[in-house]
Write a structure and sequence with these properties.
alpha+beta, 11-stranded mixed beta sheet, 4 domains, 788 residues, 10-stranded antiparallel beta sheet
Length: 788
């Protein structure tokens, strides 16, 4: 059984108003909201307003240890609400780091040296977490009206590029400072816009944002795909209204979870203002005026609308009638009436009164009609009558199979006439006698009753509809206030009026499936639209303009990724767009193409005596990963054990200390037993403190050249005194005597491990090392730091 069904929501709404004093309460479900953010993220690359690759340094221990962030590529921000609280409105926002490099530097006597080198890829990378403070993103509809995610309005930043919470918060502070400095087009993501619209009764003034966690137990289960489900609440303040209270913890989650449905947006509307609008339109059409004066109570609730102008016209008329006098003489009388009008003015204005779910129309107008009577041989007679009536119409809200209706439950029309005056000169007595005896019944019965009052009663009965659907009014409110962003047709009125539909802006009127796939270079992926769009046109292009082959896509939506040899680095990202014919509606998918199906992290790290190194791996798709130390040396190599750290896979534990050595180099290999693919990293396990310090003396990155220098106890070792070497092949070359390193332009490795050794009298073998990040041309500023 559904835990938060539509039926249960309607039962909760029936008890009392759930508006809390707001004019609109809008709930936007996070999964569809995140799809809007994805489309916004992709659009930014078209507009050149995307967040550029991030570089910087994070000092972990002052002047002793720092983390270098190099070209971090940040992925789509993703909202979740596992920690949502209606009181403080914190939504958890996550941004994955898709690519880049990370260097850990430690300060030694000769300067900064690389302690760890890692290359980040889409299969496994750090994540940036931040608490988005939606209560600080309230908006004025007149000035802006954007419902937005502003990354600068955030707190509690954490970057998982290090193990300890302290280090993660330092990394988070780096991004917090960055977001505070970014221009709006790089840090603000728009979810939609609240417009002013044209309906005076439903004209938004401002809004506040809050968060709401899903009521489903699965939304709080980290192992569930529903973990973090919830909604953004937009609480909209209307003009003439003071605003409302904020929902408490017992406020029900507004998105229904009925099986087989796709609810992603709920809008609660103020009943009185919503049902008033169609009735006021009826009255406006009847009296040809929309000049209403709205009267509100002290809380800003609309209570009465008074029509300040408008009229019902009384037509002029001519009637010819033969009558027989008391003398037996038959005469012909012609009766002419003057035109008149029932006006909504002064003390007789039409009023529309709102009483909970009822609407009362009341009107007591009057008018004066002059009559002229003519007959042969007599001067005209002039008479004046007063016409008035009392109108009372009642509407109430009812639910039907066709939606929510205002049903007219009663109409009362009470006419009244009175004789006001008569004039006629010398002949006045003649006409007055005839009026009293013959003409008065004729005027009141034929003219006033049949031709005036009966016509007006029929007109009221016809033009004040028996049933008024408020669906059109609600759809207009949603369209004018939210564009095409919210769509659907399920409307209910248990007390307030509830609209239950979906977030469906232009760019998500249909979706590409899958939306964010990761595929291997040279592989293929079939895309489709949901719902199916006939004749959809497919296109693929690089996400960022520049060289590189994005791949191809055919008319059936089958994408062929480029070959690995055409991809610079470990991955590339492309945009696949489907455009519907005719409408121009489109949706885009963000495709990541990786060179390798497997990754291991870090690439190299120093392990101090008795210490450990945390390792992790990323794999494309499902795979059974097997970890091992390749060619282990008994009594020297370390040991791999399952990691107990968040996000960790294995922990390397330092092996037995070998007193005759300075270093033990272990190669850790991870293998995907499903595909046979392998990747490896190296641990430089210190056996004792190196006696030789190695530093960068000078660099020429354009030539791929680095001059290294060795020293012992602060004394420079002269050229030829020691022996320089590279720990692994394929990392370039080094002059054994002079320490000049030259990078290999064709090499794909991301680091070079350089070793130095020399014999010292009475001491023995002395060794030192240096880890260089590659390619050199990417790291000039970091190499400059390492040479200081």
């Amino acid at each position: 059984m559904s835990g938060n069904s539509l039926a249960s929501l309607l039962a909760w709404m029936k008890n009392s108003s759930r508006m809390l004093g707001w004019g609109l309460v809008v709930a936007l479900e996070r999964r569809r909201t995140n799809l809007i953010v994805v489309q916004e993220y992709i659009r930014r690359f078209r507009d050149h307003s995307y967040l550029p690759a991030v570089r910087g340094e994070v000092m972990i221990v002052d002047n002793k240890r720092m983390e270098l962030i190099h070209d971090f590529v940040m992925d789509v921000p993703v909202l979740s609400f596992e920690n949502a609280n209606l009181n403080d409105s914190k939504a958890l926002l996550t941004m994955s780091v898709m690519g880049g490099s990370q260097l850990t530097l430690e300060k030694e006597s000769v300067g900064w040296k690389a302690y760890k080198v890692d290359e980040i890829d889409p299969l496994k990378g750090p994540k940036l977490y931040l608490d988005l403070l939606l209560n600080e993103v309230s908006g004025d509809v007149d000035q802006d009206g954007r419902v937005k995610l502003d990354l600068s309005k955030s707190d509690n930043f954490r970057l998982t590029f290090a193990e300890t919470q302290h280090e993660q918060r330092l990394g988070g502070d780096f991004f917090k400072d960055l977001f505070n400095q970014l221009p709006d087009d790089q840090r603000v993501y728009e979810l939609g816009k609240i417009e002013r619209g044209t309906n005076e009764l439903m004209r938004p003034l401002s809004f506040e944002l809050r968060t709401q966690a899903s009521s489903s137990p699965a939304a709080r289960d980290p192992k569930s795909p529903e973990f973090g489900d919830g909604a953004v609440l937009a609480l909209v303040r209307m003009e003439k209204r003071l605003g409302g209270n904020f929902p408490g913890q017992n406020y029900k989650y507004l998105i229904p979870d009925d099986q087989g449905k796709d609810y992603s947006a709920t809008v609660l509307l103020d009943s009185s203002r919503t049902i008033a609008d169609p009735v006021l339109r009826e009255v406006s059409n009847l009296l040809q005026s929309d000049e209403f004066i709205h009267i509100y109570d002290q809380d800003g609730e609309l209570k009465t609308a008074v029509l300040n102008s408008g009229e019902l016209l009384v037509p002029e008329l001519e009637i010819t009638k033969k009558i027989t006098l008391s003398s037996g003489e038959e005469i012909e009388i012609v009766m002419n009436s003057s035109p008149g009008a029932f006006l909504s003015k002064d003390l007789n204005k039409l009023t529309v009164e709102l009483l909970d779910s009822k609407v009362l129309i009341g009107w007591k107008p009057s008018t004066i009609i002059d009559f002229t009577f003519l007959t042969a041989g007599q001067a005209p007679g002039y008479f004046r009558f007063k016409l008035e009536f009392e109108l009372l119409v009642e509407y109430s809200v009812e639910q039907s199979d066709s939606g929510v209706l205002l049903r007219r439950t009663g109409i009362q029309f009470v006419p009244r006439t009175s004789f006001e005056s008569a004039t006629g000169g010398d002949e006045g007595e003649f006409w007055y006698d005839i009026l009293l005896i013959v003409l008065l019944p004729l005027v009141t019965a034929v003219y006033l009753t049949e031709m005036i009052f009966e016509r007006f009663k029929a007109e009221f009965d016809e033009r004040l509809n028996t049933e008024i659907s408020i669906t059109e009014t609600i759809q207009e409110i949603l369209t004018l206030n939210f564009g095409q962003a919210i769509q659907g047709n399920e409307i209910y009125a248990p007390h307030d009026i509830g609209f239950f539909g979906r977030i469906n802006p232009q760019q998500t009127s249909f979706l590409i499936d899958p939306m964010q796939p990761i595929i291997k270079a040279g592989g293929s992926q079939r895309f489709a639209t949901a719902p199916v769009v006939a004749g959809v046109q497919w296109k693929v292009e690089n996400l960022v303009e520049g060289p590189g082959v994005p791949g191809t896509i055919n008319a059936s939506g089958v994408y062929q990724a480029p070959a690995a040899s055409t991809i610079k680095g470990r991955f590339t990202r492309v945009r696949v767009t489907a455009t519907a014919p005719g409408s121009g509606y489109f949706s885009s998918a963000l495709v990541t193409v990786v060179v390798d199906e497997l990754s291991i992290h870090p690439l190299i790290q120093v392990c101090d005596v008795g210490a450990t190194v945390e390792l992790s791996a990323g794999v494309l798709g499902a795979g059974n990963l097997q970890w091992s130390i390749k060619n282990p040396v008994p009594g020297e190599s370390g040991e791999l054990k399952p990691s107990d750290k968040p996000g960790g896979d294995r922990t390397y534990h330092h092996g037995p200390v070998v007193t005759t050595k300075t270093y033990v180099i272990d190669q850790v290999e991870v293998k995907n037993t499903s595909t046979g693919g392998t990747r490896s990293m190296h641990v430089l396990a210190l056996q004792k403190q190196p006696m030789v310090s190695v530093r960068i003396l000078s660099t020429d990155v354009t030539q791929g050249r680095v001059q290294l220098q060795a020293s012992v106890n602060g004394n420079t070792v002269p050229d030829g005194r020691g022996d320089w070497s590279l720990a692994f092949t394929g990392q370039g070359t080094i002059d054994k005597a002079t320490g000049v390193y030259r990078a290999d332009p064709a090499a794909t490795g991301r680091y070079a491990l350089i070793l130095f050794k020399m014999e010292i009298d009475f001491v023995g073998l002395a060794e030192g090392h240096l880890i260089l990040p590659l390619p050199l041309v990417e790291f000039p500023q970091w190499l400059e730091i390492m040479s200081q």
